[in-house]
Amino acid sequence: MHSSKPTERRANKLKTLFALSAGIQAFAEASRAAAGVYRSWSGIDTKRITLLPNGNYLARWDGDIGSNGVSAGTWELVGTEVRLSPKKEEGMISGYFRVSVLKDFNSRQALLRKEDEEHADNEFFYLFLQTQKPNQAAQTTPGLRPSVSDL
Questions:
Q1: What is the Cα 110 distance to its own chain's centre?
Q2: Is position 95 within any domain?
Q3: Coil, helix or strand for 91?
Q4: Hey, CA dihedral for 103, 104, 105, 109, is it positive or negative?
Q5: Is residue 44 situated within a structural domain?
Q6: Residue 108: its pLDDT value, please?
Q7: 7 in a domain, yes or no?
Q8: Are 75 and 84 in contact (CB under 8 A)?
């Protein structure tokens, strides 16, 4: 008489693998939904973060008299937090964007720096998702490149 234990273990391993696969797929879909070009404009400066679907990001802060800095590296979505890990930063942007919260503000997808959550009711503190796709932005926006390896 054969024991059903090895068969049960294999079935449990398969169930676990399928569940893990579904979880990874759901995470990938959520990350793709967060990818895009986020921008704020205050009248004297523009901040822009491009979250590429491949997990890289590019950030730029431009003032009325020139660049306040650039940052590039990788990003990940953890819950509703977008966490940036810079590989290169220059200028005043250094350390400025590390953790932002993905939010809905007036029916618009937006990023809000974790440090600015106390101002969540003020649109001045948000970077809003643009309608342009990330790859288009990287190709058409001066100073942005599609990959961190290009820097």
A1: 11
A2: yes
A3: strand
A4: positive
A5: yes
A6: 86
A7: no
A8: yes
Top mean pLDDT of 29-33, 110-114, 130-134 is at 110-114
In a domain, 61, yes or no: yes
The Cα 51–Cα 59 span in angstroms is 9
Burial of 39 (0-12, 13-18, 19+ CB in 10 A): buried
Take residue 78 and report the two structure tokens written for it.
Answer: 């953890």
The pLDDT of residue 41: 82
| CATH code of the domain in which 128 resides | 2.40.128.640
Domain of residue 117 covers 35-141
Mean pLDDT of 84-98: 93
Q: At a CB cut-off of 8 Å and minimum separation 6, what does 76 contact?
A: 31, 55, 82, 83, 85
Average pLDDT, the chain: 76
Quick check: pTM over 0.70? no
Output the furthest CA–CA distance in the chain (Å, rounded): 83
Amino acid making up residue 6: P
Q: Indicate the number of domains in the chain.
A: 1
